[in-house]
Amino acid sequence: MFAFKAIVLLIWMSHFFIILSPHLSIRFINNIETRNQTMISEFILLGISDDQELQPVIFSLFLIMYLVTVFGNLLIILAVTSDSNLHNPMYFFLSNLSFTDICVSTTTIPNMLVNIQTQNHSITYKGCLNQIFFIIGLFCFENFILAAMAYDRYAAICHPLRYTVIMNSYFCGLLILLSLFISMVNALIHSLMVLHLSFCIDVEIPQFFCELTRVLNIACSNTLINNILIYISGGILAGIPISGIIFSYTRIVSSVLKISSAEGKYKAFSTCGSHLSIVSLFYGTSLGVYFSSPFTNSPKKTAAASVMYIVFPQMMNPFVYSLRNRDIKVSLKKLIGKKHCFL
């Protein structure tokens, strides 16, 4: 129990360090004279629609989705931290996933809501770099968390007698810290590479947040190295977690099929249901937008489609786990019951 709390505390401290890191890096870079760079103070985020009549609808819709995302994921974190029965690797990874989902939504949606409310669609140069850093870092981190959760299910089903030895607190903490460090370094490299780009008069980004590929499209200087870096880092840092997930579930299916009773098979598969739903939601929406973008002529439609991977999965994750997971349901009922007692 003490080890679990110590690891959780260390992870939360590392999260706050990551939050401060882009500001520290940009402050450091500001002291360095960048070579032949056209200095700009802000970008213009064109958003999802230019129709003024739709702005109140878009504002209300995104505000509701943001509140649901934050409130739902906070409930998951509170349920896991307050219930000692949930102090195990699977829910430890889930609480980190929920925290990451809150950070992803907070990186993009509040700025968009402010822009709609003030009718000012500009974002500062530093603010754009911060968004690039967080979005890349958090999505990379989420990839690793989903892979760690798959490995946890593999260890629980394929090696039940050695599960507590394999998935001990220190190994889980080290896994999260290493994933966080790799994600931070990857995001920092991409952010630093943007600093070397020159921008012309046209600084309009057809998106509601600073997406790296969109920023590269409006750069005047050569972005070949940036694009090569995107493909290499994306292939490695997305390919490894996806390969880990596929490997884990291949072994899980192989082990479950060896179980003779139908009840035993159902019980084994039921522990993977929530995670498989989240994996399908996360990768399905991302790949759907990626493959549909070349066939979409309108940048506005592409911006609207990006909601499916930058907002929707983060909002749905708490529902997936609260509806499909009995332990979370019980813990949430206890948590809500305690609140009523205090009231």
TrEMBL record:
From what superkingdom does this record's organism come?
Answer: Eukaryota
Mind listing the UniProt keywords for this protein, alphabetically? Cell membrane, G-protein coupled receptor, Membrane, Olfaction, Receptor, Sensory transduction, Transducer, Transmembrane, Transmembrane helix
Among the entry's GO cellular component annotations, what is one? plasma membrane
**Stretches that traverse the bilayer:** 7-29, 57-79, 91-112, 132-151, 163-189, 228-247, 268-291, 303-323
Q: Give a single Pfam family match.
A: 7tm_4
Q: CDD domains, per this entry?
A: 7tmA_OR7-like
InterPro entries (alphabetical): GPCR_Rhodpsn, GPCR_Rhodpsn_7TM, Olfact_rcpt
The molecular function terms in GO held by this entry are: G protein-coupled receptor activity; olfactory receptor activity
- What SUPFAM superfamilies does this protein's entry cite? Family A G protein-coupled receptor-like (SSF81321)
Membrane topology reported for the UniProt record: Multi-pass membrane protein
The record ties this protein, via PROSITE patterns, to:
G_PROTEIN_RECEP_F1_1, G_PROTEIN_RECEP_F1_2
**Major place of residence:** membrane
Protein family according to the UniProt entry: Belongs to the G-protein coupled receptor 1 family.
Name of the protein in its database record: Olfactory receptor
The scientific name of the source species is Chrysochloris asiatica (Cape golden mole)
**Which lineage ranks, top first, belong to the organism behind this chain?**
Eukaryota, Metazoa, Chordata, Craniata, Vertebrata
The record's gene field reads LOC102839324
